[in-house]
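Renewal narrative, Specific Aim 1. Our central claim is that a sequence can be written position by position from structural information alone. The example that follows is taken directly from our test logs and has not been curated for this report. It begins with the structure tokens describing the chain, in the order in which they were read.
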């Protein structure tokens, strides 16, 4: 039985994750601990009642050191996740990371921790979106030669990073497929630009408002046709269920000390 801790249980994703772990059909994983910010007023509260899934007898605690677990699912903040990764690496715990907004240096730190313990890290844990990443490679290969490529994303008004981690990942998939450097070809705003569009750029547009869970469209616009790849998340449960699938998969990956750095393509068996 794999004992699973969820960090940030009072958050939007944290509550959905608790529900998804409890509802998991697999008998080999079990929620064992719930962690929340040390200054939270919810410390000591039963996490089942917090997540509206019924009493579980698991009180919310303030740190991983107080938690009994084999695998951590972490959708919190950059600072909290980086600190949790260090704890997990030092204490031989597997970790599924969904937090977004890391710099390249921070992503490298996460990848390095994968040498010590098995990690799944994905900016979007939705199974449907990960299939979109996969399809996008083929679309880019076929359509990019005479298309302008734009990525349009919409999220709820509380989201703090932009463009979204998923939009950036879509851009990386396209750039990697086409042999372009995303740092050089990405265009994040066009105010003040008075020249025609450069075909080799990848444009990003960010929309924030209301309670939109997460919409992403990749637009390939050429002379005479437009092709769009669109994914719309209607509930956070899609990310939570994907994270639980990642936890189940990671729990069965080899010995902890062998490490391993994976994403959802590995979890879903989509890697070529
Ligand atoms: P949120 O603000 O609702 O929740 C974050 C929670 O983490 C809060 O309860 C906060 O108190 C808690 N927290 C902060 N510091 C902590 C600490 N040191 N210890 C324990 N808990 C701590 O945010 P959210 O909407 O749930 O999103 C969380 C993260 O997940 C964001 O980075 C978001 O972009 C990302 N996200 C990823 C996916 C995905 O599929 N990978 C999907 C949705 C959201």
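The sequence written for that structure reads:
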């Amino acid at each position: 039985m794999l004992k699973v801790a969820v960090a940030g249980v009072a958050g939007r994703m944290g509550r959905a994750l608790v529900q998804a772990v409890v509802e998991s059909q697999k008998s080999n994983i079990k929620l064992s601990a719930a962690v929340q910010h040390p200054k939270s007023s919810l410390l000591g509260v039963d996490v089942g009642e917090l997540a509206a899934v019924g009493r579980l007898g698991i009180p919310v605690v303030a740190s991983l050191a107080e938690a009994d677990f084999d695998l951590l699912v972490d959708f919190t903040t950059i600072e909290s996740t980086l600190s949790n990764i260090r704890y997990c690496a030092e204490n031989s715990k597997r970790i599924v990371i969904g937090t977004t907004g890391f710099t390249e240096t921070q992503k490298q730190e996460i990848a390095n921790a994968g040498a010590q313990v098995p990690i799944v890290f994905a900016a979007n844990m939705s199974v449907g979106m990960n299939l979109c990443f996969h399809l996008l490679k083929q679309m880019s290969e076929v359509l990019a030669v005479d298309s302008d490529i734009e990525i349009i994303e919409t999220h709820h008004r509380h989201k703090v990073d932009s463009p979204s981690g998923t939009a950036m990942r879509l851009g990386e998939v396209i750039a990697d497929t086409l042999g372009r450097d995303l740092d050089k070809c990405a265009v994040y705003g066009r105010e003040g630009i008075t020249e025609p569009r450069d075909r080799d750029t990848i444009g990003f547009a960010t929309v924030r408002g209301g309670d939109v869970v997460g919409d992403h469209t990749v637009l390939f616009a050429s002379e005479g046709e437009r092709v769009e790849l669109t994914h719309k998340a209607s509930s956070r449960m899609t990310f939570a269920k994907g994270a639980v699938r990642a936890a189940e998969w990671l729990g069965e990956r080899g010995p902890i000390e062998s490490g391993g750095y994976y994403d959802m393509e590995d979890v879903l068996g989509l890697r070529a």
